[in-house]
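Sequence only, no structure available. Ideas?
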Amino acid sequence: MNKQCTITVLLLKAFFVLFTLSFITSCESNRFDVDISGKDIKFTAERFDRDFTKFKNENYSEVNTYLKNKYPTFHPLYLTNIMALGHPKDPATEKQINLFLNNSDIASLYDSVLNAFPEIDYIEQDLKKAFTYYHYWFPEKHIPKVVTFMGAFNYTVAVSDSVLGIGLENYLGQGFSLYKEVGLPLYKIKKMEPEYLVYDAMRGWLLSEFSDPDKQDFLLASILEFGKALYLMDAMFPNRPDYLKIGFQEKELQWCLENEHHIWQSMMNSDMLFSRDKNALKKYTGEAPFTPGMPEESPGRVGNWVGWQIIKSFAKNNPDMTPQQIIELTDYKSILSKSKYKPKK
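Reply:
I predicted one. Tokens follow.
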């Protein structure tokens, strides 16, 4: 073969390799990696935590009116539900707020929050991008007002019809000494890092919007409802790490990936998928340092991860269905069957 023929063959081989790689890439492309560059949404994030401290140094009535006007939904929610300090219109609430803000431990915690989060620009930017994807896929859905608050560990995320609240004291880093002092379990402390904040907030909103607790009376239904929310997390955070979307540590997710077949076999062999036993639900979906009956390297809530994998498998095998259509499905046995979910050994 002469030199010219050799070059021609090499070029054809190179072209074939590039074509093959291009084809594989297109087949495995992320359906959620859509162009949102031209989209613009109305989005705000406000510092309720900072504004609330005005009660400490300014006229109570004036601050109460200010907060009522600026946070018409969240102000009463915070006082009555999150902190149980009383209703804004109850005169006795003033005393409770003063006791709360002048408590030395609370004052110290507030200082830690304000020092760790002098600004929330990056939180606002990340959430605005996530909600822009949200608007792309669900244009008819309301976009909430985001507020940050200090809830003394009562709530990580608080959700109403129009507001998404984020408890900043839950993201001061696992080295924050007060976490151990107040008795928080180590497995939770390890995930009280700022990198989880935006994901926890968005997951909380998606669960409130799309997950119906009344439908989750048996294990398969419960894990698939949570799996749908995690599938939407893929849409809100395309090309972001999966361990953050579900709220695992990176090594916990890796354990799930390496043991997916065994996890599924354990759930199938225990005949739990259609069980309405609350202990079964708690075992596979409850917060815990690890899943009972599995190695200590396993994460808690492993059933929710399995539900996510089933929904992703269903979407892959039913490519004509939109995210909206998938989210609306409630025939859980049919979802499992049509997902063709079968982890490799």
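DSSP finds 19 helices and four strands in the chain.
Hope that gets you unstuck.
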